[in-house]
Amino acid sequence: MDKRLQEILEFAISEKASDIHILPGSFPVIRKDGELFSLIHFDPITSQDSEKMLFSLLDAELKERILKQKDLDFSFYLTESIRFRANVYLQFNGWAGAFRVIPNEIKSIEELNLPPILHEFLERRQGLILITGPAGMGKSTTLAAMIDEINHTRQDHIITIEEPIEYVFTPDKSVISQREIPTHSPTWHRALKAALREDPDVIMIGELRDALSISIALTAAETGHLVLATLHTNSASQTIDRIIDVLPESQKSQARLQLASTLIGILSQRLVPKVTGGRVPACEVLIANNAVRNLIRENKVYQIDNVIDTSLSEGMISLDRSLANLVQLGHISLEKALEFSLKPERLKYLLEQ
């Protein structure tokens, strides 16, 4: 690894940054508690600097791939205990890189301050659990906590399909096969289809990306497997719409029936900066009860938000109620809560109650 890049990454770790950006024409940049900071005590990066730094991470095969594709996802170790997920990409003034710190320790659901209802989701042996939210909001970390709980409590065969592999699991009661795209399988679709023939109990899909991956995931959940996956959506109802809308018209009716019968629950999360520093998750929770299943079958997804609002006693919670609770507990400011809310007026109403 290039010495200057190593110094930047080590400094970012010491600052407890979550992300690092190497961009030609600017200082190195880190993201800490959701905010970006320029590292002005390092020299600005030229296009020659960035290419030298970033290409020092690539072997011959990866260099060949990136020169052809112009961008590349991969992961690497800085030390034995510090890993990064990286994306190197070509932009108008040279090669740039984005690095995400992957903690060595996999935290539990409690340590991450996630809703306890997730434990109940994981008691199921068959069905679909979805973790959603914008990029950088902790979806992969939540997924890792859930997979590790299964690993420590059940004798299952867990298959993960990721691009790239992020958290590395140490098998305990379960056996775990981790596959990286395209290193271990050329495409998501091939890896997903193959997984169904590899005697899995649990399949973790790093991201549901398109119609084919969604279709295979629904089939896997329907045929006796527990499937955990992420989606880049803003809410539970938007997640259901996305799954149905991305499929061809001829498959929509069947997909509604599959989703209604297999869905266990959806967790939509945001990491909100705390008053005291650090971040805390605000979570919307949808539990697939009979009312939710009927709404999915009848294509009345627009009514699901009302079900969440009126089902607090069952363990469901809206994002705005979660944000309001965090404000009332003094964990986050009203300003930050409004910034992360999808319905600010609804949030204000809840805080006035």
List the defining traits of the structure above:
2 domains; Beta-Lactamase; alpha/beta; seven-stranded mixed β-sheet; six-stranded antiparallel β-sheet; globular; Rossmann fold; 14 helices
Give a written overview of the molecule.
The protein has two domains: 100 residues, Beta-Lactamase; 201 residues, 3-Layer(aba) Sandwich (Rossmann fold), CATH 3.40.50. 38% of the residues lie in helices and 25% in strands. A hairpin with a 2-residue loop joins strand 5 and strand 6. With 353 residues, the chain is of the alpha/beta class. The chain contains 14 helices and 13 strands.
List the helices and strands and how they pair.
Layout: H1 3-14, E1 19-22, E2 29-32, E3 35-38, H2 47-55, H3 60-69, E4 71-79, E5 82-91, E6 94-102, H4 117-121, E7 127-132, H5 139-153, E8 157-162, E9 175-180, H6 188-195, E10 202-205, H7 211-222, E11 226-231, H8 236-245, H9 249-262, E12 263-273, E13 279-287, H10 290-297, H11 304-309, H12 319-328, H13 334-340, H14 344-352
Parallel strand pairs: 7-11, 7-12, 8-9, 8-10, 10-11
Antiparallel strand pairs: 1-2, 1-6, 2-3, 4-5, 5-6, 12-13
Helix pairs in contact: 6-7, 7-9, 8-9, 9-10, 12-13, 12-14
CATH homology superfamily name of the largest domain: P-loop containing nucleotide triphosphate hydrolases
> What proportion strand?
15-25%
CATH top level label of the largest domain: Alpha Beta
The amount of helix comes to 25-40%
- Please give the number of β-strands: 13
Low-confidence stretches: none
Spatial order of the strands forming the largest sheet = 9-8-10-11-7-12-13
Shape: globular
Mean pLDDT comes to 95
From the alpha-carbon coordinates, what is the Rg to the nearest angstrom?
21 Å
**Secondary-structure element string:** HEEEHHEEEHEHEEHEHEHHEEHHHHH
Structural class: alpha/beta
Number of helices: 14
- Distance between the ends: 56 Å
Q: What is the name of the CATH architecture of the largest domain?
A: 3-Layer(aba) Sandwich
- What count of domains describes the coordinates? 2
